[in-house]
Amino acid sequence: MFSVRNLKLEHEQEKNKILSEALETLATEHHELEQSLVKGSPPLSIISEEQFYDAVSDSESEKSLSGFETTAAYSLEDSMDSKDTITSSVSEEKVCGSGESLSNGIKKHRTSLPSPMFSRNDFSIWSILRKCIGMELSKITMPVIFNEPLSFLQRLTEYMEHTYLIHKASSLSSTTERMQCVAAFAVSAVASQWERTGKPFNPLLGETYELIRDDLGFRLLSEQVSHHPPISAFYAEGLNNDFVFHGSIYPKLKFWGKSVEAEPKGTMTLELLEHSEAYTWTNPTCCVHNIIVGKLWIEQYGNVEITNHKTGEKCVLSFKPCGLFGKELHKVEGYIQDKSKKKLCALYGKWTECLYSVDPATFEAYKKNDKKSAEEKKSSKQEPDEMPLPDSESVYVIPGSILLWKITPRPPNSAQMYNFTSFAMALNELDKEMESVIPKTDCRLRPDIRAMENGEIDLASEEKKRLEEKQRTARKNRSKSEEDWKTRWFHQGPNPYTGTQDWLYSGNYWDRNYFNLPDIY
């Protein structure tokens, strides 16, 4: 019996070895072909695994690929505008020195990074993943070349880029119109993830980030509150006391061979204080395709249900998977309904571009007609190898529709700056005045991120390894002394509206009374 079992085991091991070698050959050939096309020179051999000797270690969740999701964290990443002028000045500003002010007294923000990104053409993700077959995804590390110079705490801050939609919601008297703006905010929060295939740095336990934007009317605080699993908590508030937006994010990751899927665990809660209303939702699933070979591309899919806990109204949005022919690529559609499930209005658009509202009957008539014309192109669940091209007409605007949100093109230098939006470009800027105020745990002070932003890739790699080792040592020391980690600015408790476990703001951060902070850098 044991001999039969051993024989089967050897057979499976041999099959796994053959598959691994075949994948490696495919990845190598594909990578070399890309190299020859990019450089116009003979194909180079794949980078040797010795050059990535530090890619896999005993470190745990600090090595996770959680940044691939972002946020809808996740995140938050887009460069768009309202029809109002509240954000229009950002994209028009030139690079400025610290402390410069606009004529109205609001500080300017930088529109470029100190150094452009490094080319990733000489690197293959497969050269790392081939050594990780059978490992938990949370234990895979990536060389710093695959990062972008932001912490995940900064990346999730990109939710706030379109805060004007929250201010607009607060100003409206109709509950349905307020829900439309909240839905537009939830969709816009994930828009900047498009083409952001760089991985944010995983936050260290106790790391914090703050952002005050007088021009956008908010301030935000976030903290890495857990290491196992990695959980990031945030709390934002309007400077005019018109809203509070808070939540915690725990990306649950799955590796599907050709893609990485990040399911965002955690509830988003938006409170419109002037109306005593609270809205909650969870973000869609984010998927990064072509992890082994090909051009990386991102899609969002799944249902997002936004609930108004005061009125019982709900907005149910469907983020469409692209399908075999790419017809549904980036599409979002759904309905706002009252507590008796009567449809009040329909919403449609693309999370990379825009969101419209229209009468439900008009929308359903359009959908019925559109379905007839597309019946010959039935979708398949097969995963496309290459990113499908979007429809040439992009979003067809149904007559009678109202525009809720529209994206603004990214700055001209975005492609050389990790595909950052104008908002993202300013997240890690640091001046002397700020440095004297923020706590020593703020991720602007992280030496590995700062080095990468400055184009010092070797120093960034060294510092990243040093910080991870320091975190491991601190964890072992706490374990020996049976000391529990205590979060500083957030505490666990039930969400006041859903009752689910959440991380709630403890207060007092903005008093600027920082003492006994951990030495994490």
UniProtKB/TrEMBL annotation:
Residues 368-384, 463-472 have a biased composition (Basic and acidic residues). GO terms for molecular function: cholesterol binding. Residues 368-392, 463-484 are annotated as: Disordered. Residues 9-36 form a coiled coil. One of its GO terms (biological process) is lipid transport. One of its GO terms (cellular component) is plasma membrane. It comes from the Eukaryota. PROSITE patterns: OSBP. Keywords: Coiled coil, Lipid transport, Lipid-binding, Transport. The keyword Coiled coil applies. Belongs to the OSBP family. This is Oxysterol-binding protein. The lineage of its organism: Eukaryota, Metazoa, Chordata, Craniata, Vertebrata.
